[in-house]
Amino acid sequence: MMNYDIVIVGGGPAGLAAAASARKAGIEKILILERDDRLGGILNQCIHNGFGLHTFKEELTGPEYAQRFIDQVLEKKIEYKLHTMVMDISSDRVVTAMNHTDGMFRIQAGAVILAMGCRERPIGALATPGYRPAGIFSAGTAQRLVNMEGYMPGREVVILGSGDIGLIMARRMTLEGAKVKVVAEVMPYSGGLKRNIVQCLDDFGIPLKLSHTVVDVEGKEHISAVTIAEVGPDRKPIPGTEERYTCDTLLLSVGLIPENELSRGAGVAISNITNGPVVNESLETSIPGVFACGNVLHVHDLVDYVSEEAARAGENAAKFVSAGCRDMAEGEDIQLIPADGVRYTVPSVINPGRMDRMVTVRFRVGAVYKNAAVSVYFNDERVMHNKKRIISPGEMEQVILLKDKITAFKDLKSITVRIEQD
Amino acid sequence: MESVRELTCIGCPMGCLVSVTMDGKEIKSVSGNSCANGDRYARREVTNPTRIVTSTAIVRDGDLPRVSVKTKTDVPKDKIFDVMKEINKIQAKAPVRIGDVLIPDVAGTGVPVIATRNIQKA
């Protein structure tokens, strides 16, 4: 069996940033395992710009952003294996993987960092009526086909779901000469970033129909048309509102699911809201020494935040290894409680003993709030009240908690994050 | 005559809702932005809107059939499809490095189109 201080599962933005920061923290034996034929993960197909504003103060495309981190990994001579599929992670941090050259192999890891990312929700998960002909793609599949393989899936496109990848692909297909007829979103608000609605739909006059969904798919061999209808507050189609669109392509951008089969196999506790591991302030899962970051933990909108989060996971994994793979908790854990519109928090528990100077708590809300505030309560006392013009489910929010404040507060049992309307 | 244009700032992922009060063609005030970029963006968006165009170009003998490209800086919004036409004509040859100029001046904008991905020789 091989031995590594840190094994990182996934060579996308999270895995790369975690590796670089673990090396900066002094860890020598680091191994990245990547199943694709190159490092960089999903950024390889995200050729649009807008990445890196927070990290590099400039606007990069996905491949450029990825290359900055790939270069760090290469410069630091961090080991990685491509075409390598991780089959299993055990609760005592033995990673089983396989590839063409090494066959099946096992690694005892001091710490494991889960950085497997997420995948797209498929049409099978939607209960959409109608046929299942060729021509139905997830937006990300179409993105890979167009941007990496140079293949256009179709010319007349309907998009279901207004997630960012769907919006980006609406523009991309339009630029490549396709006619994107409509984007239908079942919710009364878009799941994508505002800037993508402006730049990808408004710029090209592509209609976004909120509270609409696909109620019929036509075509036996290949898709020939879809029917879209308005839905009521119960998300059920309203009879009489149907509109038929002829098309040769239906793209789906209906949500992303953290890819946690390996985490579950290891026995890591999974949140039923984020579908990602439940983590503490160190981004450590319910299994000591197993950390998680990036979209496998919870789905992010911005890769900058993935990199930042992953760097923290890398540092914390390094700390765990340097301490002889021992938990450094002190005293009682403090629970983080999401309330009043806040759906979840990452992390969900804080132990001051393991905490750095501060911890970034990220969360999403369940509805659109205008002129509201993000409030933080220590026990029953309000300690933070950040006013916001808009808070929406499509954009991740955060609050920063300082260790000084937490340790100075007497008998702190719980920290509640809630949305308050003034 | 005063009118208000509501814009979503795309200067950064914040996506601030910015209001531009116009008197005819003259900008009277900009509000709702949280930084100077928002003010700049809103003023330009109502007078001369620009965008960075990203796409892919054919590359021969590479480890991928397409190389991703972008206009090095933003170009006028109404030139987007002219830029696309020129990008679709080029054929790069591997190896290609990030930053390599593939079109020196695209569609008369004075802006070059550059590679955004390294392509190794296959």
Account of the 3D structure:
- The complex is a heterodimer of chains A (422) and B (122).
- With 422 residues, chain A is α/β, with parallel strands linked by helices.
- Chain A contains nine helices and 27 strands.
- Chain A has helices at residues 13-24, 53-56, 62-75, 139-147, 164-175, 194-201, 261-266, 303-322, 403-408; strands at residues 2-9, 30-33, 49-51, 60-61, 79-81, 85-89, 94-99, 103-114, 118-120, 136-138, 156-160, 179-185, 208-210, 212-218, 225-230, 243-246, 249-252, 256-258, 290-292, 334-339, 342-346, 349-350, 358-365, 369-378, 381-391, 397-402, 414-421.
- In chain A, the strands form seven sheets. In chain A, strands 1, 2, 5, 6, 7, 8 and 19 form a seven-stranded mixed β-sheet that branches. A five-stranded parallel β-sheet of chain A has the order 10-17-11-12-13.
- In chain A, a hairpin with a 2-residue loop joins strand 24 and strand 25.
- In chain A, helix 4 runs parallel beside helix 5 (164-175).
- Chain B has helices at 36-47, 80-87, and strands spanning 2-8, 17-23, 26-31, 50-51, 54-60, 66-71, 75-76, 91-93, 101-103, 113-115.
- In chain B, the strands form three sheets. In chain B, strands 8-5-6-10-9 form a five-stranded mixed β-sheet. In chain B, strands 1-2-3 form a three-stranded antiparallel β-sheet, with helices on one face.
- In chain B, a hairpin with a 5-residue loop joins strand 5 (54-60) and strand 6.
- The A-B interface holds A 44, 47-50, 53, 59-64, 67, 146-150, 175-176, 193-195, 197-199, 203, 301-302, 389-390, 395 and B 7-10, 12-13, 15-17, 32, 51-56, 58, 64-66, 68, 70, 77, 80-81, 84, 98, 116-118.
